[in-house]
Amino acid sequence: MIESTVSGLGQRYRAVRSHSLALAASLSPEDQCVQSMPDASPAKWHLAHTTWFFETLVLRAHVAGYRLFDEQFPMLFNSYYEALGPRYPRPQRGLLTRPDIGRVHAYRAAVDEAMNGFLETLDASRDSPIRPLVELGLNHEQQHQELMLTDILHLMSCNPMLPAVREGAPPPVRPVAGGWHDYDAVQAEVGHTGPSFRFDNETPVHRVLLQPYSLANRLVTNAEYQAFIDDRGYQTPSLWLSEGWAMVQSQGWRAPLYWLDDQREFSMYGAHPRQAEQPVRHVSFHESVAFAEWAQARLPTEFEWESAVSGANAPEQAFGELWQWTRSSYDPYPRFRAPAGAVGEYNGKFMVGQIVLRGSSLATPPGHHRPTYRNFFAPAARWQFMGLRLARDL
């Protein structure tokens, strides 16, 4: 959901859709068309794909006589849904100079008009089985709002002018005192409960046995990570997992992504001096593991993180700063079953070779976070707003 103050499915729909356009408003048509790497997508594609979701899974499937806005758009803007037909190759999305941004905006407007009429009937019938599908579409678009920001940041970092996306200087960092919270052994209940929205990968609820552990009160800072670099962290193979060390060698990693030199970094505000107390951003799982090894600590499991954040003794900076790497592989919970139909492809088929991140980031839309949320990325990914929190055994 967007915000607790936004009531009614139609109101929430309009709020989410407006926010996507607001995020792209400062971007030129050229900005919105370019793809900087295969893992990223042009902003224009994000705007069209989220519209495709509502047109295909809601309007086309549940509104009698609905006609597609453009017969070619399903192929252009389907992401990975095998059940819904062929797709344009992901690494080539930046070649889609047509449809232009005006046509994409017209697509959004037409689908929004049809959806607004449809949602009036859903708001009048609150027990409709279609409501969860619309809620999924809204949360799906919020995910793409965050992706749109992270993808455009990567794109701007490839420009030698290092242009800023936002005006002014980055906000000053509020330092958070260091320290550790200790947690006793417990049989913790993890997973989402209650009637509010959740993705399928947050269920079923189940119990896990946690041994005594300690969790850092805050995220690792730029200053602490600089100390790791100064101590030859990127030149010490014993700190790294084998795959991570191979990435250091093959990719030439020597610092977090977007660190320009010993003093400056690149962000949405362009190039500027780093703030020592800011949580270190844009580090991969491999870098996080190596730093934790250097610090004589480890990363928390996703269950340790969820249990700690859900309790009375919660650590700081859990939400709204950075997604936090855990030491947990992205696997299905016990008794997990993907939903039937196309929506069953949303999460389940990615449950291999990925690492779970918890929390939310400064790019996450308001209201789009909860203790049970399971984000996931490949261990070498760095372009998202990713950071780390340390844990220790007791």
Structure description:
The protein is of the alpha+beta class and 394 residues long. It is 33% helix and 12% strand. It is built from nine helices and eleven strands. The protein has a four-stranded mixed β-sheet with strand order 9-8-7-10. The protein has a three-stranded antiparallel β-sheet with strand order 1-4-11, with helices on one face. Strands 2-3 form a two-stranded antiparallel ribbon. The longest helix has 27 residues, at 131-157. It is globular, with a radius of gyration of 22 Å.
**Relative strand content:** 5-15%
Spatial order of strands in the largest sheet: 9-8-7-10
Element-level helix/strand string? HHHHHEEEEHHEEHHEEEEE
Overall form = globular
Structural class: alpha+beta
Rg computed from alpha carbons, rounded to a whole number of angstroms:
22 Å
Helix % is: 25-40%
Main beta sheet: strand number and arrangement?
4 strands, mixed
Tally the helices: 9
Q: Ends: how far apart? A: 38 Å
